[in-house]
Amino acid sequence: MSSELSVDHLLGIKYLKPEDIELIFKTADHFKEVINRPIKKVPSLRDITIANLFFENSTRTRLSFELAEKRLSADVINFSAASSSVKKGETLIDTVNNILSMKVDMVVMRHPNPGAGIFLSKHVNASIINAGDGAHEHPTQALLDSYSIRERLGEVKGKKVVIVGDILHSRVALSNIFALKLQGAQVKVCGPKTLLPKHIESLGVEVETNLKAALEWCDVANMLRVQNERMDISYFPSTREYVKQFGLNKKLLESLNKEIVIMHPGPINRGVEITSDIADSEHAIILDQVQNGVAIRMAVIYLLASKIKQ
């Protein structure tokens, strides 16, 4: 197995090879053990400076990256664009060049525009990690989701995974589809027709509009949040209607003739896509996903940084 990534940036899962994912997972295994030690820090990136640029609010992803960076002993600069000069009309390039003039080696960026990370990687001399670009990709979330499946079920290959909910507005869904297919899983999507992209089948996934049928089929159900903040029109009659057709509750789970693994990228709308008794049950690996997020992000940062050092 190669000991280095085939890419210089993590812009999206679609640019990775299966070997890259395998390497990230092997590296994350090592860091997961580090996180569980009494002293959780390693001096691996003592001479690397990382800037976290968040042009969109995100508490969980930002904290997870920050923790990963600090566990690796990197120097960290946090930049929240919501309260910055971007509001005063400064361009993305200006903002980043100002930050790079502070001798930054790596930029972790979340941006509302799809392709912002790719644009950036062509214009600045630093390693870019995409922490979510619009409704396009969110590669570290997909990696931690696959890693969590591997941890619970032994491997991802051959597993049946259904992604349920708002697929249309979800970067998590797209990155997950790419990552799962790359590792040889079978993927279905399930949700209201209005929340499924028109050409979703061209990605090699099947559409199922009946939640019970989808759950009967799958080994893993990844329940996505309905992204009301990205909706400028109403995509379904009411939340109550959505819950009735696509909400996961205990009764539905117990009606299946088998056990399945429940995932959720968070934040959870409890009582909408998933009820509290399921979110907190032993079927759910939601908190494992959070813990694995730090190990996966440590692995990605470490592997990209080792390419900078060469």
From TrEMBL:
Domain Aspartate/ornithine carbamoyltransferase carbamoyl-P binding residue range list: 9-151
EC number: 2.1.3.2
Ligand binding (carbamoyl phosphate): 60-61, 110, 138, 141, 266-267
Positions with a binding annotation for L-aspartate: 88, 171, 225
Reactions the enzyme catalyzes: carbamoyl phosphate + L-aspartate = N-carbamoyl-L-aspartate + phosphate + H(+)
Annotated pathway: Pyrimidine metabolism; UMP biosynthesis via de novo pathway; (S)-dihydroorotate from bicarbonate: step 2/3
Stretches assigned to the Aspartate/ornithine carbamoyltransferase Asp/Orn-binding domain: 157-303
GO molecular function, one term: aspartate carbamoyltransferase activity
Similarity comment: Belongs to the aspartate/ornithine carbamoyltransferase superfamily. ATCase family.
Functional summary from the UniProt entry: Catalyzes the condensation of carbamoyl phosphate and aspartate to form carbamoyl aspartate and inorganic phosphate, the committed step in the de novo pyrimidine nucleotide biosynthesis pathway.
Subunit structure as annotated in this protein's UniProt entry: Heterododecamer (2C3:3R2) of six catalytic PyrB chains organized as two trimers (C3), and six regulatory PyrI chains organized as three dimers (R2).
HAMAP family: Asp_carb_tr
Name listed for the protein in its UniProt record: Aspartate carbamoyltransferase
Record lineage: Bacteria, Pseudomonadati, Bacteroidota, Flavobacteriia, Flavobacteriales
